[in-house]
Amino acid sequence: MKRSQPIKILSCFIFTLLFMLSQSSAVTIIPDQSLANQFTRHTVTGITTSLPQLPDVTGYPGASYLTIGDIDGDGIKEIICTSGVGLDGNAMTAGDGAVAIFKRNGSGLDNWTQAVINQTFAFANETVLRDMDDDGDLDIMVMDNFILGWYLCGSGGIYWLENLGGDILQPSNWVKRTIYIEPADSGSCPCSFVGTGTCNSKVTSYHRALFVDLDGDGLEDFVTTKNHMWNWQWKYDTKQYLWMEWFKKLPSGGYAGPYQIGNGGGFLLDMADIDGDGDLDIVAPQFFIYKAGFVRFPAGDPRGDSLIWFENPGQMALAANPNLAWNRYVIDNEWTSPNTIGKANEAIFADIDNDGALEIVVTNHNHQQYSSYSGSPLRYWPAGVYYFEIPTNPKTMYPAQWTPLSIDISDPNLNPNDHAAVLGDVYGVDRDFNDYNGQGSPGMVRAQDINGDGFPELLVPGDGKGKLYYYESNGSTTSNLKFKRAALYADVGCMPGEAKFDDIDGDGDIDVVAAIYDTRAVKNLNLPTTSASIFVFEKHAPCNNIPAALETITAEDGSTWERVNLPGFGTQYNVGVVAMCPYQGSLYALTRNDQTGFELWKTSCDGWTRVTVPEFTQSDYYGWLKPGFLSPPIDRKFNLKQNTWGDMIEFNGNLYVVVSTGYQGAQLYGSLGFEIWRFDGEYWLPVVSKSVDAEATGTITAISSCANNDGTYTATLTDSTKNWTTNQWAGGVLEVTGTFSDGTKGLRRFNIVSNTATVLTVQENETADTNEFTICTEHQITCDPGRPNYNVPGIAANSSQYTIMKGLDESGFGELWNKSIVDFEIYNNELYATIGLNYEDGTRVWKTANGTTWTPTSNYSFGLFHGYDQNGNPSTCLLPGLESRNGSPVCSSSTKMGKSSVTGSLQLYTGGTGSTGCNGRGARVLRLDGSSWNFLVDYFEDENTTGTNENGFGVSDLLQNQNFQSWSWAEYDNRLFVGVVRFLGGRILYTETGSEDDGAWIYAMGGDYPNLSDGFGDCQNIGSNLYNYNGTLYAGSIVSAAFCGNPLPPENGADLWKGTGPGDNITWTRITGDGFGDATIRQFEAFTEYNGTLYVAASNLVPSNFCGEEPAGYRGAKIYRLKPQVTTTTTTIQETTTTTTIEEPTVINLIRFEASGKLARILLKWETASEIDNVGFNIYRAESADGQYTKINDALIPAKGSPSSGAVYRFIDWNVEKGKTYYYKLEDIDTAGKGTIHEPPAEATAWFLWGGKGLTGRR
Q1: Are residues 837 and 768 in the same domain?
Q2: Do 966 and 1067 belong to one domain?
Q3: Do both 678 and 653 map to the same domain?
Q4: Which residues, in sequence order, are CB contacts of 320 under 8 Å at separation 6+?
Q5: Which tops the pLDDT comparison, 1051 or 509?
């Protein structure tokens, strides 16, 4: 991509096609959030949690522009940050713009001292750190004023803070000096209704200064650009309002000027030799390419030029005439360029394609709703980052030579009213601010090669987009540049300000320093700006996010397992891990927590990190279930999201997480309905949740028909201020704030039956299968045997506020009784979800193709209700005497799902949990045939009542004896296996045909299987979670001793078994029979594959026993990893060997080979500059520098470099012991099989949580 080969665009193409064809061809963007793992975030000031915390923190309000440097000469860099709005966070306070210094305390990056050294600026912009008065110390130049300063009649100009040589953190050490203020206008203040009085300036502003010797006198002058608010806002028809200027440095130390360069610019400029004549020219972006009020300038008006450049006339010419006008050339114009970039914000020079020639990289600052101002065709959109190749003759009239090439841009057809689309768009303005108005995106841009490959990385704060983007260059092909993109920080509503690359800690790695302005919008509070943060993102080598082994166990079968988390992630209240899922290079773990409901964790470079998401993970208790009112000994807390079941899955590039509410049983137990959220690697967004929206809100003004036994089961609640459409809320849910007798607050929820213009008719729905009187006073709900009763608060007119929720995007798909989703599964490119614990209506299976719009794929309870057949006709009772249950759903829950090809094609299967009643209890099995779910195991499957195709696989008598639940699925050896819950010992069956025939299901454990009795020979193993890993069938047991004798025996730790051999004669081998030595482990609950091996979660309890405050003896859930078997060989390294020699490398050019001690492991890194005929590498290890070296890699580590370019490699040695130092040598193998050992060895010592101490690796 040389200058001599500009890309030409035919102007006859329509606007959108131009962007599709000409702008998208230059760069390939690969979203890869794992890049963020190369950085560790440290807080200089502000937010310290992974995501915004509630309540908000103060930080440094208005944090905007950054300068980094060692002011006091102690070898440690300080951060200078400006605040335009001032420390009160109120943009309407005049003259309080601030400059602050942040000084690091000690060697870490998390402890800083903040010192505000001046707060008298109109709107402080960029600063420059330099010796302004030539006295040997560093002063601070401040460019002042912007829009808010204009509106407040701010006195903008150019200033510097003189360093008096004392304590840099003391304001008294800094004296404000003036370089230039525009001469005053006469008359009243022209600013706005806010400003009054006489202006003391022309209301100008300066953003940036670049220092260069323009006139050849050996003194550095500076170039800047000016905005003039008066002319832009009120005199735009006749006046110019943007200038390029320069100030001449005088021998006396002051500055003369300004000298006019030309019209235009006004924003964040840069300088480079554009025309190749040896001096520095100016590229100037112009943001204000429209009149005040968003009226377009006429075609041809230079004020519509969005990007221009000025030709430097040379030092001799400027020395002779400082006011000499520079030649002005147009790069982009919003009227006449075929595909304008729109409102340009910043332009910088960078060789982004590594071709030896500079390009101009530009950010615009556009908004998806600017189209309403710009007419047709759409000119100001899309927002994004662009670059221009500098043509051979840059003075040629544009647009023949200048064409913007998009690096990363928004959707040209983005609908500004589609909230979800705006949030998901790369630069769609998502700041919740007057329906997105008032902001633009992106902000600034920085380019620097921080990984040494010659291609610069990019750093782009979103400004009006709440993300800070890092782009890692992956080089180029013959025609394409490639970048991977990650968000280093994401917060809907924040405004990332300036961000810079800088080695701020002096370790040789280039870090990122960023100012984040305003995090309040995510709270949905209409408050002034109250907080901002400054972060350091410390760069380190890429990590693999593999958790360290904290304990190693040799199992009964000889396999090795490693525990990889602290029990319960450090708290006993994380009693279960219900799901694990790899996503974007990390392993996520979803817990069941008996205090907070659930927690979400992920692996990171530093081990496990808790994920916090406002409105999702930070909601703890559900208000209507009042703790402490029950009589001893039962006094449990009821949680908002107690997560009986939950799941995670990656679908369409997003991580989907579902959590449950309520408890198992025929009462709501505080259920709100499950919630589904999704994560795109940058943002967490609600999919099915009360957080999605609220349909209506208000205060109840009257209540009637709301007493117990008042003759009606409904009540009427009135809001006299409304004018609703009849029945517009029918089928919705009403949430009302209530009060307990002791004055504490709680929540009530009712189903909405109907409504008039002002009146809602509602019904209490706390207990399944009953007609409940709707009671508005505090009262107690009677619950299932073994479950505590609970109180609900009373509600009253004129004090109870309400919210109406209706629609499939509300919690539980809009149904309170949809307490949980048991399982996610992807089938035919659609995401399926099974409903659990709906005792009122029965289960359903839902699906979505786009991840947002959900539709049911089955009827309630699969159309099966007690007392009726599958066609809805009354039927003969299988179990006479239970007719009282007629009409109730047979299947309150669907179980997990499995995919299998046993029928000859891939199909989806699930189980239905059978409740007691006429049609009989016991497990059901269903298969999805096209769009219909068909029973394979059920009472109505055929004319007889025998065979494994009957409900309960033919065993549906007493509760403890029946095959109660077809719980988990796995395909193994071309057969579909199912783990069945049974309270006197679980069973496993399989099918070879997947049919509904009598003998289609065969026992593989328990039942009539001859080799192993029920529960793997133990009554307490009531069920199994199945998983096929590498051709081995794993079965983790579910433990309960509830029916195992009188008195009940103590419960053992759960079992983990593996099945091998033919599926029709499977051999079971026990891995552990005691929860890997922990008797409190009640089930091996979740399985997944991560980083090439098997992970299994061990939980403390069974979900049906989950009540709240669990026994103190529980230690917390654990995660175990199957350690792959490692076969090592020993190679003696001698100078006389014919295959391995110690000599200078001839096959590769090795730049570095390093070892560094990590937690329970040692990380090896090496980098090559070039590789000739290289096949790969081996790693050898010894316990002394001159000891015997043994190869520790199983297979050759493949080469990635080439003769013209090298590569970076990583290898982790997990087989290390506490306190030992290890020595490593690297061997490369060429195409002839010859090995070359590289000297000297690298050494390191791993460190351990229990007392080991790591050493920094060294060559």
Answers
A1: no
A2: yes
A3: yes
A4: none
A5: 509
Rounded Cα distance between 1028 and 1059, Å, is 9
User: Exposure pattern of 420-446 as b/e (b: 16+ CB <10 Å)?
Assistant: eebbbbbbbbbbbbeebeebbbbbbbb
DSSP three-state, residue 1094: strand
Closest listed residue to residue 965, CA positions, set 993, 989, 930, 934: 989
User: Which of the 8 DSSP states describes residue 952?
Assistant: G
pLDDT in tens, 702-759: 999 999 999 999 999 999 999 999 999 999 999 998 888 878 777 788 999 999 999 9
Instruction: Tell me: do 676 and 718 sit in the same domain.
Output: no
Are the CB atoms for 1231 and 1145 separated by under 8 Å?
no
Q: Mean pLDDT check: name the lowest of 421-430, 885-894, 996-1005.
A: 421-430
Residue 718, CA distances (Å) to 732, 747, 801, 957 in order: 16, 18, 11, 50
pLDDT > 70 in the chain, percent: 83
More confident residue, 214 or 393: 214
Give the CA count within 13 Å in the CB-facing half-sphere of 698. 19
For residues 574 and 592, what is the distance between their CA atoms, to the nearest angstrom?
Answer: 6
Cα(1208)–Cα(1201) distance, integer angstroms = 8
Query: CA 428 to CA 368: how far, in whole Å?
Result: 6
Q: How far apart are CA 1229 and CA 1225, in angstroms?
A: 13
CA distance 309 to 287: 14
Q: What is the mean pLDDT of the chain?
A: 83
- Number of compact structural domains in the chain: 3
With the CA atoms of 879, 880, 883 and 886 taken in that order, what torsion angle do they form, in degrees rounded to the nearest 10? 40
- Residue pointed to by tokens 């520079």: 326
User: Is 231 domain-assigned?
Assistant: no
* Residue 531 token pair: 């907080």
If asked whether residues 1065 and 958 sit together in one domain, one would say yes
Q: Are strands 139-144 and 124-130 parallel, antiparallel or unpaired?
A: antiparallel
Same domain, 1069 and 1021: yes
Range list of β-strands (E), 229-358: 242-249, 255-263, 270-272, 281-285, 290-291, 295-296, 305-311, 327-333, 344-350
* Closest by CA position to 1103, among listed 1006, 981, 924, 1014: 981
CB 358 within 8 A of CB 272: yes
Give SS3 for 927.
strand
Examine residue 855 and state whether it is found in any structural domain, yes or no. yes
**Among 104-118, 608-622, 639-653, the least confident range:** 608-622
**Do 681 and 578 share a structural domain?**
yes
Provide φ and ψ at 883, rounded to 5°: -65, -20
Can you give the CATH number for the domain in which 660 is found?
2.130.10.10
For the record, the structure tokens of 733 come out as: 């849910």
Listed in order, strand segments (DSSP E) in 706-857 are 714-718, 733-739, 745-755, 759-763, 779-781, 790-792, 801-805, 820-827, 830-836, 845-848, 854-856
Range of the domain at 1054: 551-627+640-689+813-874+885-1103+1113-1122
- According to the model, what pLDDT value does residue 628 have? 36
* Least confident piece of the model among 364-378, 799-813, 912-926, 1143-1157: 364-378
Structure tokens at 636: 């449990």
Residue 449, domain member (yes or no): no
Question: Highest mean pLDDT: which of 29-33, 415-419, 904-908?
Answer: 904-908
Structure tokens given for 790: 């609970």
CATH number at residue 1213: 2.60.40.10
Phi, psi of 221 (to 5 degrees): -85, 180
In a domain, 540, yes or no: no
DSSP-assigned letters across all residues of 726-737: TTTTTT-EEEEE
pLDDT tens sequence across 1011-1036: 899 999 999 999 999 999 999 999 99
Any idea what the CATH number is for the domain that residue 718 is in? 2.60.40
pTM for this entry: 0.73
Q: Is the peptide bond preceding residue 542 cis, with omega within 30 degrees of 0?
A: no
Judgement on whether residues 766 and 823 belong to the same structural domain of the protein: no
